[in-house]
Amino acid sequence: MMLRELREQVCEGNLALPRHGLVAWTGGNLSALADSGDRIVIKPSGRLYTDMTPEDMVVVDLDGRIIEGIHGPSSDTSSHLGIYRGRDDVKSVVHTHSTYATAWAALGEEIPCCLTAISDEFGGPVPCGGYARIGGDAIGEEILRSIGRSPAILMKQHGVFTIGPGIQKALQAAVMVEDVARTMWAARLMGTPIPLPEEEIAANFDRYTHRYGTAQASEGVTGNV
Amino acid sequence: MMLRELREQVCEGNLALPRHGLVAWTGGNLSALADSGDRIVIKPSGRLYTDMTPEDMVVVDLDGRIIEGIHGPSSDTSSHLGIYRGRDDVKSVVHTHSTYATAWAALGEEIPCCLTAISDEFGGPVPCGGYARIGGDAIGEEILRSIGRSPAILMKQHGVFTIGPGIQKALQAAVMVEDVARTMWAARLMGTPIPLPEEEIAANFDRYTHRYGTAQASEGVTGNV
Amino acid sequence: MMLRELREQVCEGNLALPRHGLVAWTGGNLSALADSGDRIVIKPSGRLYTDMTPEDMVVVDLDGRIIEGIHGPSSDTSSHLGIYRGRDDVKSVVHTHSTYATAWAALGEEIPCCLTAISDEFGGPVPCGGYARIGGDAIGEEILRSIGRSPAILMKQHGVFTIGPGIQKALQAAVMVEDVARTMWAARLMGTPIPLPEEEIAANFDRYTHRYGTAQASEGVTGNV
Amino acid sequence: MMLRELREQVCEGNLALPRHGLVAWTGGNLSALADSGDRIVIKPSGRLYTDMTPEDMVVVDLDGRIIEGIHGPSSDTSSHLGIYRGRDDVKSVVHTHSTYATAWAALGEEIPCCLTAISDEFGGPVPCGGYARIGGDAIGEEILRSIGRSPAILMKQHGVFTIGPGIQKALQAAVMVEDVARTMWAARLMGTPIPLPEEEIAANFDRYTHRYGTAQASEGVTGNV
Fold it and tell me: Domain range for residue D92?
């Protein structure tokens, strides 16, 4: 894939963030790794989503040097780069301050795995990493240390980062972590939600990971044919 | 009605779910029973609502075998089938993880009948069924056991299922259960809502069921003409 | 004004309810009194807002007899009529189950007057009337007994009614009561909001009622010219 | 810049308020100072945002006398003027009753600086000024006394005012104060958020103020090139 095409996909991915209600004003950003593995395309710093075009996207190398771009790269670029350098399965990263995920992060708490949707998407609680200063290597390092097999991590007193093997999966994790964060927040305000048993978490994660979106999605088919 | 026409209606019904804010990403699904009684049409597994067309809908028989379809059926197909097999008054089923209904479900609590709107739509509290694993027969069985005369049921630590004699009524129940779940959640956070007396629940349910949407909807007419 | 024109305005007023997020599915209704004083135009019972047209509106006399209409009138028609019969300053009535106003109503509590916006719009707390059964005269009577000078009243375990000297003012009260109900709900969950002093309530209500929307809206002008 | 052009920008700025969900009905207002320094353009009093045009904007001098305008100026004009007279770095003022900011204001509490986004945008807690009566000089004076270096201030039992060196920055502060107010409200309902250490607040505010939106936005670039 040419960088031109990746710029278009990264721009489209960034525009999905306000459409899903995950960002305010110029906040949030999405990046993706080029097939060559030595370039990322990322949202520019401090630009409104309105009228954002592929030409506004910034290309940097893995040390953060600007390769192409009429704007500076996102102020979270170092954090994205740290993830790409440490996890070669990650091809896209999303960062937001989406409201309810960030509310859990404000308290430094993981989102407990009390719903089937959480076991499906995250394979357990959504972890919360410790506080790390924006702009340097600290955030990327803390994410690598704490994210485990989850595609999403809360960062204490900051916001949320999600990762994926492609843009769609990183976006999906950003949408779903906010969705379950809001539901669990609403539940927690009424009472004390109880985590699912480990064997249910494992069964849900396995089904969702291996059969969802396939011809064998429904047990009926598997069991009866 | 031809299956082609039912595919269109089921597709349109599924597209109503994001329009009413009841689902996130690929979550949720709606199905309907064909007039023949031996086929259902259901949303495909793991597909985004964007650009979903009638051709994407999947036709399965009551044992879950795919009859027509370019995708696999929803991973909740077995749960839908269990309801159709057990309740011959049901012609459509909706499943969502809508936020506030699922918050009550996270705690395993029914929604108490403290508002006229709840007595109108549900004839009493919205019941909450026990936890059951996704993908097999357990969810359908628990729904049949616990739903009673309500068109909606919460499923513990999972989400909500609604049923109806047609697509519109199943959709209505999905919209209304989220609406009353949110209102009752908001009330419960401020204090302790008190259930309506049984005779008021009965009077409201009777009025809504027998006169709503008719020429005698208003008592004025009944009483004065 | 001809009834044809009033049908159009009442239809447009009803369509404003979903646009402002005040209603779900077929819930809620708006009516207006004809200039003749012996007819009201009201939303039909149990019809979706989608594709609602002026022809769907129902004309009834003050005893609730259908004068014109292809559908039955709203099941809340008797409540609207009771208000028109008892308050000749009222030319339009709105009824909704908007979420946060109804949350206060679920508890049977008035919304305390702790914000300038509440003193401006309602001249004091938004009152909450006692529970009354839908469909007969009881609701209208309770509203007349309890609404005072406020353009909005919560009805216990039911929802909200608003009144105005015209459609726009009744709609405004429906929008504003939900807005302040949500803000006060959010405040109340964090602490104990304190009512404004009586003299501040009086000063705000006077300014808003007599100068807002006029050339003397700003004190600067009044004081300095 | 001609006043005609400023009318267009002020109209557009006011129309951004409902688009960002910050206002209800006719509430809220935005003004800007003319380059000449002796005129402001402000939203008219009591007009709906629907169909608002540049011609509806009102031009007043710094004493509040109407210079041009077919409507009266906003009833908050005196408060805007007080800010412009006291702070010559301010070229635009926004006032709203946005829900979550106003919930904090209802309690007379500042929004504590527990998130990086708050240190970025506001350089510390968002302050809350004391109660002051609408329409005279009291609100402007209290804002000048209490706002400090923050671009936003809550006003007790009233709402929020934001300021900026231009319309976009005042709007940004209005959007961001509601965003962080909602997130902190959600966090506070679950637990006790802890403020960031002073050195983290200082580091974030410095980075955001001096590098955000520039070619050096990312530390990677600064550190490695």
Answer: 3-210
